[in-house]
Design brief:
299 residues; alpha/beta; Rossmann fold; eight-stranded mixed beta sheet; 12 helices; 37% helix
Length: 299
Amino acid sequence: MTPMITTFDAALPNGITLACRAAGPEDAPCIVFLHGFPEAAFVWDEVMSRLAARFRCIAPDLRGFGASSAPPEVEAYRAKVLVGDLVGLVQHLGGAPLAMLVAHDWGGAVAWNLAAQKPLLLDRLLMINSPHPATFLRELRHNPAQQQASAYMNFLCRPDAAALLAENGYARLFGVFGDAAWLDEPTKARYRDVWNRGLEGALNYYRASPLKPPTKGDDEVMTLQLPPGFGTVTVPTQVLWGEADTALLPGLLDGLEGWLPHGRVRRVPGASHWIVHEQPALVADTIERWMAAEDPRPA
């Protein structure tokens, strides 16, 4: 029997409300799942259903996405503010630590910052095709292939991006998934329901971030200085990476161990950026194994 997915709204102390999907016993170890662009919490349903017999699984629509609050100001999507949403969500769910935080794409960008700044809020971290900010900064500055692969980010910052993405039944947005076997008509309908609520909040993630391919020599990404030690994640971390990702290239994994003293990387040949859809059983199995693994930190 497939576990039931329920929904609830998490009203945070900062005035933001996150629309959440949930599965599993309320007294079980809690795993939180963060989606990316252009998605929403529903993309985790199959993975959560596979885990719900043993874990309490929570997936929010991030700020700006789906049914969650979507402030209009670009500044409302800075990293510090987004981390505050997660801190508030952990408090709403009963307090730290989470058993695990699982994150993909933009959800991962927020999760990297949370894990680095607030390590006591989670016991384990699983990152799925989401680049560490330090390696992403390096590749955006110096790797022409990654600059080209990420060029779409500058398009998404255009003031008319939402209108262009909505044209012809969201043809451009569906195009980001490529020729995906998993993208059937019912799934497309779920995406349309999310996108019909508005795209500006989701696009503001790109507008607020300095991590975009440079278009001229004095762009912020070329002068950005990360503080010493910034981004070091002491939380036990596993990175699951679909190697056929055409937007986030495998070079982003080079040197990653320097920021993850208790980390490991699992590469998945042939899997794309959309590995959560392509191989949900693999994702769920990776979560279960990472939960059961011995703590790699010294006693």
